Structures are given as structure tokens and as C-alpha cells.
Amino acid sequence: MPYATQHADAATAELDAALRVGPFHVALRAAIAARGLPLQRVQHHLSRYGVKVGVTSLSYWQQGARRPQRPESLRAVRALEEILQLPEESLIRLLSDADEGVGEPRRGARSYRAVVEASGVLERLLAELEAPLDGGLHTLGHHERVRIGARRELLGRESHHIVRSHRDGVDRFVAVHHGDPGCVPDRMSVHALENCRAGRVRRHHETGVLVAELLFDTRLRAGDTFLFRYGVEDGTAGASREYVRGFGPAGGQYALQVRFDENALPVRCHRFTQQSAAAPRSGRQELPLTDRHHSVHVVEPRVRSGIVGIGWDWE
Length: 315
Fold this sequence. Notes:
Blueprint: H1 10-21, H2 24-35, H3 39-48, H4 55-63, H5 71-83, H6 90-97, H7 112-116, H8 118-128, E1 137-148, E2 154-165, E3 170-178, E4 189-194, E5 197-204, E6 209-220, E7 225-233, E8 242-247, E9 253-260, E10 268-274, E11 282-286, E12 295-300, E13 306-313
Helix pairs in contact: 1-2
């Protein structure tokens, strides 16, 4: 799933990565650090929720020496999600997904360190393609269609871009795809669908990042507009739970559509926004599935810096 974290500070990147792949104690430690709360304050906030947890227990939890297991401890974890302004079920999910060993990451998931280093990986891959972070294009419109398969996996996505060049000589776009935990970039493929052709592709297995050139048949002059379309076939990871798109500078219209296989329909879907990966989610709104095509969508008339996404629950 794609996050724009390369310009985020270290705390934001660590929290974002830890919430995605765990393990639980790393995510908890990163969340407490990102909020700047001493453990005594965390304990005080928990007491206001009617939950009693000692500072020593909190310390053990964030060190990985112990895991919350008793009903009272699990109540504390759910309260911590609210206190630390984290997405619902984010810490609980890491506990339920963990293997039997204390503090072990999920089987098949990308390592915590690898995901934290994703920003550096992306910069390196872009450098290999001689692609600057500013590719010379301003987005006027971007429509993404995401497909979720019968195994609940991210099958693939299609992107339709409308861009305007803000300098002479622009002749390519660099697409970035970030797969779900456990994905296999070597088995992903990129397809140029309209007004472009596929160029060089770079992959990084540890972080699940794929970077691909899409070459235009013309060199744009400053002020020229251009339309192109491409797709990424994935389907290499486990159950997908959300799709997000991060934005740097403000841009044009963005539309995101997620379509589910008729044999694997979620029980509920919702939209959300975030100012950054470490910020609390806001703008939550339930999204009803369409009857015939089993899809949901969001439209942002003019995107701002931050994150827009759609999440869903399987059961």
C-alpha cells in the first residue's frame, strides 16, 4: 500500500513503519515517543479511562519484555490507541498478528528496520533512475482504481494522470508502488496503458517498494498538459486492509476507487485523512458499497499536503 514519508521526520517515519508491520512493542514505543509523553502521563491518562496499569508494566510492554494478554491489559491497549491518537485496532491488530514468541514480527512481514529505511531506499532507487524528487510535473488530476481479490489481497491498481509541465524537456514520469507487508516485488509488473511506455524498473524486496519509469513519446514544454495511464499488477501479499495516498505540495483533483471481488466483500468501509503518518486520523466517513460493482470511492476536489485513504474491515 503507497505512503509519502520520504520528507517526514524520523519520529513520523518510525511510527508509520511500526504501525504497519510491528512488532507491538516497537509500535507502542514509537507512538509514545511521537506524542512526547512520559510513562507517568500515559498511566495518568489510562486511569481516566478506568484502566489501572503500572508504569513498570508499560515499560515492559514497550521494551518487548512482556506482552498484554489479560482482559484488563487488552482494555488498556484499546485505551492507548485513543490516548496516543492512533488508528482503531492498530495496536490490537499487531498483538493478534504476532507469532507465539514475545516481540516477534509477523511471519512473512517486512522487518521493522527495512520499512523504516524505506525513505532512504526510495531516494536511492530514484537516484538509480536519475530521477529528481521534483519531476517537473504538476498534477491537475489523478484517478486511481484499486482492485482487491478473492483472497482479500491487493491485486493491483490503475492510475490515470492529468499533468502540466512546469519546465521544458520533461519526457517521463516515475511511478512508485509500495506493496502490503509480505509482498514480493519481483513478482509485480508494470504496464503502460496509454500515452506512455514502460522504461526501467527498480525493486527493493525488504521494503516492498517498486519504482518504474513511464516514458512519454514527446518532450513537454513548460505549460504543456499531458494525459497518461499505467497499471501495477501485485497480488503477492496477504489480506489488505487499507489503501492510502500521500501528497506533498497541494495539487489538483484526486479520486480513489476501491473495488472488491464479489467473493470477498468487507463488512464496512470508511474514508479518512491525516496531516501526516504520525498525526491522528480525521475526516472519517462511512462508505457504502455499490450493489453491482462492489466498490467505494472518495473524491478530493483539491488535495492538500497529507494523506487520503480508504480503510475496510473484513469481519
